[in-house]
Amino acid sequence: MAADALTTDVVVVGAGPVGMMLAGELAHGGVGVVVVEKRRAPSTESRASTLHARTMEILDSRSLLPEFGDPPNEPRGHFGGIPLDLTLPSSHPGQWKVPQTRTEVILGEWALSLGAELQCKHELTALDDSGDLVEAEAAGPDGRTLRLRCRYLVACDGEESTVRRLIGADFPGRDATRELLRADVAGIDIPGRRFERLEHGLAIAARRPDGVTRVMVHEFGSAARARPHGDASFEEITAVWKRVTGEDISGGTPLWANAFGDASRQLTRYRHGRVLFAGDAAHRQMPVGGQALNLGMQDAFNLGWKLALVVRGKAPQTLLDSYHDERHEVGRQVLANIRAQSLLLLGGPEVEPLRDLLTELIGQEDVRRRLAGMISGLDVRYDVGGPAHPLLGARLPCTEVRARRRLLTTTHLVRSGGGVLLDLTGRPGRPPAVLDGWADRVTALDAQPSPGSSLQGTDRVLVRPDGHVAWAGPGTDGLAEALTRWFGPPR
């Protein structure tokens, strides 16, 4: 059998939004990256359609938002089908309606424009991590085999991850017990339904601007079926829809149909030597409110800059352990809230008292903010070590600062892909001498926070490339330790 060979720094398996987000981050960080994808072309299935506030901030920090145009913004989301105002302090509060197909195309074009290479129609068949490098094989078109050699391989290949199977990674959790059927249907005219709980089940119907209606339905008491790749027939969906709503949608034209269940699984480790996992390859959950897609893209954003520093020899491999430490805990919390939501959504009459209680609690602002932060990703705070400070570990607050004679948003500050040491003292001068050893990875910037900004009262802030605060303080105590931990040893 004929074979081709390819050597690169990092191989990313899977060209969905998570894989292309990671590929773009790596290329942005100066790393050679090849994406291996078994499909022939980008997906035409709409799947997730929601980008949350934190993801929009991330896209803004890479100057990608203009490519998305002016997507519809909806401040109201839900928690388990119970209405929830998602508005929190952010440059892009609420949720933004963007078809996953569009997100995938934009991220793919961005990654390729930065030098990433895409190998479509190649399915991974073998994988070996020798400890010094990773060797893999992918079956390509016309019977050809692509042999890959790389320093690291990252699996972004979804719920049925081939990489996970090839290395036998431990993936504990539980399989689906209940499911939602969904379809995008053209040529039907039915009332809109927002998480309507009827006598026999849950029904959702939303008509898009192009006239296509997305329907989702669950019949109370029904169990999840074994479905390879989430396959579901339109005939099954129309039958369940009629039993639950009394409406006949069989005359419509299905553009896409599938089923998704309430399975909940998470890898024990996101890092296995030189093989790492992100997105649905690392965690499997019911895609409630777009959280699955957003969680995966935020995985990629956390991993990208760290892996680029390690590959470039600027930081030790131990920096990659922080990817597991940080994102596994975030994933655990998200999967927990999704399990709670699936119970509220798909449970029958027995969950009504719980839904009534939560509806009442959401009316309290502290509860609303807590749930909104959880869903939007704005509440993520990493354990970054160092002296205690209110900003430590959280994303840099969304605000404006005056720097270099112009106003900059905090998302602008990390667009270079490097770290930033903000001097907010109002006394411009030479950066602290301790920064000299990291000047190739961290930029010093004198800045003046806007009036009323939560940055006021803080002298200096060290910001990681992902926008999270790694250190803050009045002097320089602990700064060298933070620089070493997050950016490697001084040059």
Automatic annotation (TrEMBL):
Database matches in Gene3D superfamilies: 3.30.70.2450, 3.40.30.120, FAD/NAD(P)-binding domain
An MF annotation (GO) of this entry: monooxygenase activity
InterPro entries: FAD-bd, FAD/NAD-bd_sf, RIFMO-like
Cofactors named for this entry: FAD
Residue ranges constituting the FAD-binding domain according to the UniProt record: 8-336
Sorted UniProt keywords: FAD, Flavoprotein, Monooxygenase, Oxidoreductase
PANTHER family in UniProt: BINDING MONOOXYGENASE, PUTATIVE (JCVI)-RELATED (PTHR43004:SF19), TRK SYSTEM POTASSIUM UPTAKE PROTEIN (PTHR43004)
Descriptive protein name: FAD-dependent monooxygenase
Natural source organism: Streptomyces plicatus
